[in-house]
Design goal:
Structural class: mainly alpha
Radius of gyration: 43 Å
Number of helices: 10
Mean pLDDT: 78
Order of helices and strands: HHHHHHHHHH
Distance between the termini: 125 Å
Largest sheet: none
Shape: elongated
């Protein structure tokens, strides 16, 4: 979760820099629309901004600010994709991510969305610009950022086991624990008679080994005495000698 917050903070910092140059952004759109002879329809999609920059942008200032807008949108889209892969989520968080993905789709129509209080990006436009041309495109990033903050708020309320993947931890042990649980339960549920039988068998084996060692020790002792002591022959009476 800390990784997500850090990524979101970085995007917000970039957006604050972009927000300070909103008039430059509107001017770049105005110039490129004139070059494209497209002054009637509103700027209603990310792909439209991309097309203006690629084909109708004549100066570096306009290209820089249009590229900054597209890069922020791309960073938000990558973050949404990362969260979708790493975080299982629930119905609420998944619905928020789906809304963000829809808003950041290059072909999505932005003309009807408007950023609300506390955002004032629409208030910096004239009535005609806000209503007919740029109200949707300047509202896109703040609306998506609000959705991402809402996602973080709901995600932090989920159990810590669910958030473990997002914070960069390993979930392998979490998955293996339930698999190993039946084996441990089977061992703990072994009947006492089986344990007693196993102990009895072990003690019998030990007794046999001890008796065997005693027998070998006695045998070795007898052999040692026979070799080290004087051999005594049985006594026989002296025989009679012939004279």
């Amino acid at each position: 979760m800390n990784e997500v917050k850090e990524a979101l903070r970085n995007i917000e910092q970039n957006y604050k820099l972009f927000l300070q140059q909103q008039f430059t952004f509107i001017g770049a759109l105005q110039h490129t629309r004139e070059n494209a002879h497209d002054m009637i329809r509103p700027v209603a999609s990310i792909s439209q901004v991309q097309s203006y920059m690629d084909h109708h942008c004549n100066n570096s200032t306009d290209r820089r600010i249009l590229n900054m807008f597209l890069n922020i949108c791309s960073d938000l889209s990558k973050l949404c994709h990362k969260l979708e892969i790493m975080h299982p989520g629930n119905n609420i968080t998944n619905a928020i991510l789906e809304r963000c993905k829809l808003l950041l789709s290059h072909s999505n129509d932005l003309s009807t969305i408007r950023a609300k209080y506390p955002h004032d990006v629409v208030n910096h436009l004239s009535c005609d610009e806000a209503k007919n041309h740029y109200g949707g495109v300047v509202s896109l990033i703040p609306v998506v950022l609000d959705c991402m903050k809402e996602w973080v708020t709901h995600a932090e309320k989920l159990p810590w086991q669910v958030l473990y993947n997002v914070s960069g931890g390993s979930a392998t042990s979490e998955k293996r624990a339930p698999q190993n649980a039946p084996a441990r339960a089977a061992i703990s549920q072994t009947p006492p008679a089986v344990h007693l039988e196993a102990q009895t068998s072990t003690s019998n084996k030990d007794n046999v080994q001890v008796q065997g060692r005693k027998h070998v020790w006695k045998k070795n002792l007898n052999n040692t005495e026979n070799h080290s002591g004087k051999l005594k022959r049985p006594w026989k009476p002296p025989g009679r000698h012939a004279f």
